[in-house]
Amino acid sequence: MTSELQIGKRATAPELTSPLRLSSGITLPNRLAKAAMEEQLAGRRSHPDSRLVTLYRTWDAGGVGMMLTGHVMVDRSAVAQPADIVLDATSDLAPFREWAAAARTSSLWMQINHPGRVVRRDTGSRALAPSAVPVDVGPLSKFFPPPTPMTASDIRDTVERFAVTAELADRAGFAGVEIHAAHGYLLAQFLSPLVNKRTDQWGGSLHNRARLLLDVVAAVRARVSPNFGVAVKLNSADFQRGGFDLQDARHVIEWLSDSVDFVELSGGSIESLATAGHPADERTLEREAYFLKLAGELVTDASVPLMLTGGIRRARVAEAVLARGFSLVGVATALAQQPDAPLGWLAGEDGEVPAPRSSLRSKSLRAAAIQASITSQLHDLGRGRSRPTLAPVAALIVDQYRRSRATRRYRQEHSTGQQ
Ligand SMILES: Cc1cc2nc3c(=O)[nH]c(=O)nc-3n(C[C@H](O)[C@H](O)[C@H](O)COP(=O)(O)O)c2cc1C
């Protein structure tokens, strides 16, 4: 174990406690970042409610240097989940200002996203996509409506929406935005040759498939203050045969490098399930930081700071990620379970947070149940409680109930024009 953790270690590897200065001028106090987790805590009109403030104060006090919010939707007619936050030109900025003020010592960035075709049929959301390729998740595919290929005007409108949301995040007091181009949402759909079958300037070559992402980044940069951070979350690979792969990621990182503060690397999509990693039944570095081997190949060429997220649950693994050449370490699940784990890690403890488990046999059901139990933990933290997480199966049942209530409210607000 120890020798494996030393592999590729650089003499100059930064410590977890080292500050990091980004190109926008923001200095992060340390190398640990709370990665994005969709909180599903929207109140009326998809605004943040007070539970989000409590949740982010808790993480801020737990020692991380940066917090990335769960994805915030740029278009209220297309939401990944009915209780997702939306920030658009019609939003009231006051609750967003309260949310931004939850960060006292860490840097709080808003992740902004458009789900594209990954919208639930029951929300009545518009399923837009580069091409008419439906979501394929086996028997669960029926929950996703058939997507409509985007027109040039839909594409221009979407670029503008990302820019508006970023500008509003800046005005509300967030330190930066992270544009979500991973995990199979709209920007990743354009990047993927399996979903993007277009023959115009947004399809075909990798450069054409990356055009929407690059235009979004440029439009966001043009609209925000010079000292406001801009980052991108990108897959190191989609883990689908013929999909976006490591070589593609290498080029896209190069094209982004002059205009972003950092690129966060993750992997997988709703169709490949790799986002949730592999069960860590063996304690090896590659099983723990499960994208490290693949994404590590991108570090040598990159001229922009890279962040690695996925499976990191203890200090020694986080240090090994820095030793491999990454500038930042992203942690999601472990910080839902134990929001103050970074305090121990920064003080030199290994402090492993055990991975959540479920004995369900079906892989997709198991992933859904674990995801639901993590969401329920976020909700508990938002209420100021820190009791043990609901058992995954119980969390799945609660999640279904909560989701159907949120769907009713979303549809009602949408149909009465309150959106
Ligand atoms: C409940 C939950 C919600 C998530 N929501 C988002 C999200 O909104 N945006 C995003 O980029 N990733 C999201 N993720 C993925 C995480 O950011 C991260 O990439 C993934 O969980 C692997 O990291 P981990 O092993 O530290 O959890 C979510 C993960 C979980 C568990």
Automatic annotation (TrEMBL):
Is Hydrolase included in the keywords of this UniProt record? no
Q: Does the keyword Oxidoreductase apply?
A: yes
Highest taxon, organism lineage: Bacteria
Q: Which GO terms describe its molecular function?
A: FMN binding; oxidoreductase activity
- A UniProt-annotated Pfam family: Oxidored_FMN
Specify the NADH:flavin oxidoreductase/NADH oxidase N-terminal domain's residue ranges: 16-340
Whose protein is this, by species? Streptomyces melanosporofaciens
Q: What is this protein called?
A: 2,4-dienoyl-CoA reductase
Q: Which UniProt keywords apply?
A: Flavoprotein, Oxidoreductase
